[in-house]
Amino acid sequence: MRLRDAVLLASCCSVLVSCSSSRHDPNEKYYLVAANIKVPYWQTAGAGLIKAAKDIGVAAEVVGPDNYDPAGEHDAFQRTIAKKPAGILVSAADVKTVQPDIDAAVQQGIPVITIDSDVPTSKRLLFIGTNNYQAGLMGGKLLAKLTNGKAETVVYTIPSQPNLEERLHGYKDAFAEYPNIKIKQVIDMKGDEGVTFDATKAAIADKNKPDAFVCLEAIACKVVADVLNREHMTGKAVIAMDTDRGTLDWIQKGMINATIAQKPFTMAYFGLSLLDDIHHSKTPPQSGTSNSFATLPEFVDTGTTLIDKNNVGDFTKAQDSATAGGQKM
């Protein structure tokens, strides 16, 4: 092999994922901590995590409560710290609950990266995820187009999550250009399909029925569509978030107009790859918004995709291919 080729091969091996597992300890393991980990969103993130782990040659696992449970996520994080992992990815269900956990892990020398939902006031190294404000703007402009700029709108969210607050901010700024689009009600759906079902039934029972429904998190809009379908209410504008299979099915059936898809596979894949580089780096990484010479960015935007009836079939096939397999190594 020529020297130039050898240097090129060595350089390729050092970028994010290594060509071999020779630098890795047999006990080296990385974790992704989240809440509601059985929903398709986190199944997709888990697939990205495991793909990265296999490519690199390390162990990885998704941990956390099966349902929306910030306290359960805290407990899972504490158990993870006790295992002395090589690094942690975490999505904050509640900022106040998880911030002390992040700071405790970093204090013990465990690198932590937030994905999906950030905790900017913590000691985490950086955030990898969606520009949630822009996602809200995208959804707001689409709703204005669907309703010709006039709609009484119901919004479903979880107020404790900063990523959802940023999306709502984006929607509100988009609506500011359309004085005839009003937010009639903001519903705290508490990460619960039952709460969403009951709240939607109550909303459409009101004399002044909503014209549009906006879901800022993953599971609400499939429930909204189900209720509207049961009540034979057509012609409502419904904009979802993420790619729960139920959401995709209702897009195909015409009860949901579109969903704004994030890239949890990418978040987890890139996040673990970066954690591995950080863990094996001889130089401690530098981060922070006030550090002009930081070696890490403050935020990596993984982007969004608008999915509607035109591309939902292709997306579903790609999703099935990417998420084939388990979540644990």
What's the topology here?
Layout: H1 3-13, E1 29-33, H2 40-56, E2 59-63, H3 70-82, E3 87-90, H4 95-107, E4 112-115, E5 127-129, H5 132-146, E6 151-157, H6 162-175, E7 181-188, H7 193-205, E8 212-215, H8 220-230, E9 237-241, H9 245-253, E10 258-261, H10 264-280, E11 299-301, E12 305-308, H11 312-322
Parallel strand pairs: 1-2, 1-3, 3-4, 4-5, 5-11, 6-7, 6-8, 8-9, 9-10
Antiparallel strand pairs: 10-12
Helix pairs in contact: 2-10, 3-4, 5-6, 7-8, 8-9
Task: Note down, in words, how this protein is organized.
By secondary structure, this protein is an alpha/beta fold. The chain has two domains: 23-130 and 263-303, Rossmann fold (3-Layer(aba) Sandwich); 132-261, Rossmann fold (3-Layer(aba) Sandwich). It is 44% helix and 17% strand. It has eleven helices and twelve strands. A six-stranded parallel β-sheet has the order 2-1-3-4-5-11, with helices on both faces. Strands 7-6-8-9-10-12 form a six-stranded mixed β-sheet, with helices on both faces. Helix 8 (220-230) packs parallel to helix 9. Mean pLDDT is 91; it is low at 1-21.
Key terms for this structure?
2 domains, 329 residues, 11 helices, alpha/beta, Rossmann fold
Using the 3D structure, state the CATH architecture of the largest domain: 3-Layer(aba) Sandwich
- The DSSP helix count reads 11
Tell how many strands the DSSP assignment holds. Answer: 12
Helix-and-strand structural type: alpha/beta
Name of the CATH superfamily of the largest domain: Response regulator
Number of domains: 2
Across the major sheet, the strand order is 2-1-3-4-5-11
Mean pLDDT value:
91
Sheet with most strands: 6 strands, parallel
Helix content: 40-55%
Distance between the termini: 35 Å
Model regions low in confidence, pLDDT < 50 over at least 5 residues: 1-21
What characteristic shape results from the CA principal axes?
elongated
Order of helices and strands: HEHEHEHEEHEHEHEHEHEHEEH
Can you tell me the CATH topology of the largest domain? Rossmann fold
Radius of gyration, CA atoms, in whole angstroms: 21 Å
| Residues in β-strands, percent | 15-25%
